[in-house]
Amino acid sequence: MRNAFAKQITELAQADERVVLLSGDIGNRLFDDLKAKCPDRFFNCGVAEANMIGVAAGMALSGLRPICYTITPFITYRCMEQIRIDVCYHHQPVVIVGTGSGLSYASLGATHHSCEEMGMLRLLPGLAVIAPADAMEVRGAMKAALKHPHPVYIRIGKKGEPVVHKTEPNFEIGKAIPVRDGKDVCLLSAGNMLPAALETADLLAAQKISAKVVSFHTIKPLDEATLADAFKNFKLVITMEEHSILGGLGGSVAEWLSSFPAAKARLIRCGTADEFLHETAEQEEAREHFGLTAAAMSARIKTALG
Amino acid sequence: MSDAPNLEFIARQLRFKLIQMSHAAGTPHLASAMSCVDILIAAYWNVAKIDAANPADANRDRFILSKGHAASALYAVLAERGFFPKDWLDSFGKHRARLAEQPAPNCAPGVELATGSLGHGLPVGVGMAMAARIQKRDYRVFVCMSDGECNEGTVWEAAMFAPAQKLEKLTVVIDYNKWQATGRSNEVMAMHPLRDKWTAFGWDAHEVDGHDISAVTRLLKNICPGKPTAIIANTIKGKGVSFMQDDNNWHYRIPNPEEVEAARKELGLA
């Protein structure tokens, strides 16, 4: 996803001279092409993320379209007030991109995990919260974000994730992308969980359970039409995310569901627990810890169906 | 400077206006606002190129009052300079008024930034100055901060970043009145020597009597090639009224009618 981001941002910067990339001392060599093509519109802002967000707001207030980029926990938790006041209160179209989000950097320890930031950020008025599923969606999300007249937060993974979409999908903020059709259960996947969601569907299919799979890439604003369809027409709706079950996609859907009387389906939230991961773990091992593997999720769904 | 006597009189009028506004609205931070009046006058009368008739001009100079708790001073100055009608000041701080105790985004012509949480104005000002360079515009950016505000880490992040970017069109003025909300600023944090700190961080740093409008004006006009400018303006909190000056109770106190009248007399106003 990182490489797709770098390529897309270079294309967007060449097409629009208002586009500026601010990096928090990250992405060594990743932006060499951008620096060569638009040398006056890339800035390494150092390990000073709060300042970087303020700088971006100042640029946006002056008519530019800044994109801020660094590792997710540092560009979110650390700068919460700058995002809230400088960007959101002033309603400036700053695009904030967190890399290595969720459990992508599991092995680096909990300082580098981000399993709470979508829940925090989606509370900020006017801020869209997006978790693209793969490199193709990252490209679409970046294009959509720069057309969006409001602030946007995008959490991306690392490099080398499986690419699910064969071509770049039509990416609209707040409009989920159906990936596979099904009739019994509906899997709503946020961000890099999409390959695991498809694998879950495969495991369920082997047990004669038909699963629809949706890339539910926008956590805010919610795609309410897709949610209404899912809760009216399926037995179970399952949210999947490398994020706490509190506050992220599952939390958002649970809130929405509380005001949706026509629901037939039950909700199952697959995500991280309300805890820091203290054990040393690679991403896949961290997913195992939190029951986020296809085997664990399909078993949970099978049990819930009875 | 030939207009200095005139500006000194305007400063006294504005200080009294702030006292009236604080009294009428029951709003605190009066002494903080009185502290920075002369800095604002030097900027808005003598230096900053901002046209009250065209306050959103893309080429205007930007002035950010980062110490948002002193907003009444900014409002009074902007009204005096014709950015909006003076009667807007009458509803300052009242329900549904345009002018809140601390400024909201786009609350009035000439207000560049919603401030009130400290440590935000300088990073945003840095972004504006960088935008000028990217867009090949010629404007300058002025940021006025309080000394207590220099407790905030973002101030020092921006203080390291602006010289690295060689932002010579950026000027920060620190209203150094030696008090913060509940203590002497040099006792709460090791602020001293403030000018040396900014110099060490790579700024063209100067120290000045922050109530000497002519001296502040000269420094505000200063541009040092390749370096941003920092002006440490030595000021007195509550400046202009003997019973308010350097008495930190006036960070929060609201003047009563007798105090308003006593202040009017001291300021030599009819």
What does it look like?
The complex is a heterodimer of chains A (306) and B (270). Chain A is an alpha/beta fold. Chain A is 38% helix and 20% strand. A 7-stranded mixed beta sheet of chain A has the order 2-1-3-4-6-5-10, sandwiched between helices. In chain A, strand 1, helix 2 (32-37) and strand 2 (42-44) form a beta-alpha-beta unit. In chain A, helix 3 packs parallel to helix 5. The longest helix of chain A is centred in the N-terminal third of the chain and has 14 residues, at 2-15. Chain A is globular, with a radius of gyration of 19 Å. Chain B has helices at residues 4-25, 30-35, 37-47, 71-80, 121-134, 153-164, 185-188, 194-200, 213-221, 257-266, and strands spanning 62-65, 141-146, 170-176, 179-180, 183-184, 204-209, 229-234. In chain B, helix 9 (213-221) links the parallel strand 6 (204-209) and strand 7. The A-B interface holds A 20, 40-41, 43, 45-46, 48, 50-64, 66, 81-82, 85-86, 89-91 and B 58, 105, 112-114, 117, 120, 122-135, 153-154, 157-158, 160-161, 164-165.
Report the end-to-end length of chain B measured between terminal Cα atoms: 26 Å
Q: Count every helix of chain B, treating DSSP H or I runs of 4 or more residues as helices.
A: 10
Roughly what fraction of the amino acids of chain B lie in strands?
5-15%
Computed CA radius of gyration of chain B, to the nearest angstrom:
17 Å
SS elements, strand count of chain A: 12
Classification by helices and strands of chain A: alpha/beta
User: Would you tell me the structural class of the helices and strands of chain B?
Assistant: alpha/beta
- For the report, how would you describe the main beta sheet of chain A? 7 strands, mixed
Morphology of chain B: globular
User: Proportion of β residues of chain A?
Assistant: 15-25%
Q: Helical percent range of chain B?
A: 25-40%
Q: If interface size is counted as residues with C-beta under 8 Å from the partner's C-beta, which chains form the largest one?
A: A-B, 30 and 29 residues
Radius of gyration of chain A: 19 Å
Give, in order, the helices and strands of chain B: HHHEHHEHEEEHHEHEH
**Could you list the spans of chain B in which at least 5 consecutive residues all have pLDDT below 50?**
none
Query: What can be said about the biggest beta sheet of chain B?
Result: 5 strands, parallel
